[in-house]
Design goal:
This is ASCH domain-containing protein. It comes from Dokdonella fugitiva. The chain is of the alpha+beta class. The chain is 18% helix and 28% strand. The protein has helices at 10-18, 160-169, 201-206, 218-228, 235-247, and strands at residues 3-7, 23-27, 39-47, 53-62, 68-70, 79-83, 86-92, 108-113, 119-123, 185-195, 257-266. The strands form 3 sheets. Strands 1-6-10-11-2 form a 5-stranded mixed beta sheet, with no helix packed on it. A 3-stranded antiparallel beta sheet has the order 3-4-5, with no helix packed on it. A 3-stranded antiparallel beta sheet has the order 7-8-9, with no helix packed on it. Strand 3 and strand 4 form a beta hairpin. It is globular.
């Protein structure tokens, strides 16, 4: 079984933690739109020409060219570790001096997660793990007010220590989260391919949608409900608003093929 990363926004991370999200849809990246033939869902797997067994998995193929592509998020039984926006809060070295760690290693590493502000400390076990590199001091940059020359004009944020403070507090996009910092692991339970607009009401709820929260304005949900001919209380309008907040206006109308990945959270 393989393990892969998957990017999640803060609202979706909170939904996973709350137990209200068990599906995600990701647009299929098709290599071309051949004028002859079309793309259709399929599966592949079984025994290949060498007699090797392969798990059957969801795929999409082109009826003219015969090209077939499997889901990049894996097959049932595979794992997905969630990447989310985070803050690197440092590391500590508490080991005995007579038992030094390898160069670049920490005893512990600490992070904070932007989705809910939760903090976590990870014991490294002496491993050298990838961590953000602290920015170096610039030529001529005043280290701190204590070391400033008499003619230095302090503006409130123009020393190296000020810049370093901003660096430590900055939010790091989830795409840059290393495996060791991830707190959520998911097990893939099902994968299929379908058109975006084929989503059912039950699946829209499984996507972890909410009503009346800051990342999904009521106006966007009402507008989606009018387009779908449904009501504000239904889940599908909220999903439309969520999808377009991520993928842009009219992305729902484009009705792309999507990978539908169902999962369950693996409790640590």
């Amino acid at each position: 079984m393989r393990e892969r990363p998957i990017l999640m926004s803060a609202p979706m991370v909170r939904a996973i933690l709350a137990g209200t999200k068990s599906q995600t849809r990701r647009a299929v990246k098709l290599p071309h739109a051949h004028p002859l033939g079309e793309w259709e869902p399929t599966t592949f797997g079984g025994t290949d020409a060498r007699g090797i067994e392969h798990d059957e998995q969801a795929a999409i193929w082109h009826t003219r060219t015969g090209e077939t592509f499997g889901c990049p998020y894996g097959v049932p039984g595979d794992s997905l570790w969630v990447r989310e926006t985070w803050t690197w809060t440092g590391g500590s070295l508490n080991h005995p001096h007579d038992a030094p760690l390898p160069a670049g290693a920490y005893d512990e590493l600490s992070v904070r997660y932007a989705a809910d502000g939760a903090k976590r400390t990870i014991e490294t076990g002496g491993r050298v793990l990838p961590v953000p590199k602290q920015p170096p001091r610039r030529d001529g940059e005043v280290y701190s007010l204590r070391d400033a020359p008499a003619d230095f004009v302090y503006t409130g944020d123009n020393t190296y220590m000020d810049r370093l403070d901003r660096w430590w507090k900055r939010k790091i996009p989830g795409i840059h989260m290393p495996r060791w910092a991830s707190r959520i692991t998911l097990e893939v339970t099902d994968v299929r391919v379908e058109r975006l607009q084929a989503i059912s009401e039950a699946d829209a709820w499984a996507e972890g949608v909410e009503h009346g929260v800051d990342h999904l304005p009521d106006q966007a949900i009402y507008a989606a409900a009018r387009r779908l001919g449904t009501t504000f209380e239904d889940a599908r309008p909220s999903f439309v608003a969520l999808w377009e907040s991520i993928n842009g206006a009219c992305s729902w109308d484009a009705n792309p093929w999507v990978w539908v990945v169902s999962f369950k959270r693996i409790e640590a």
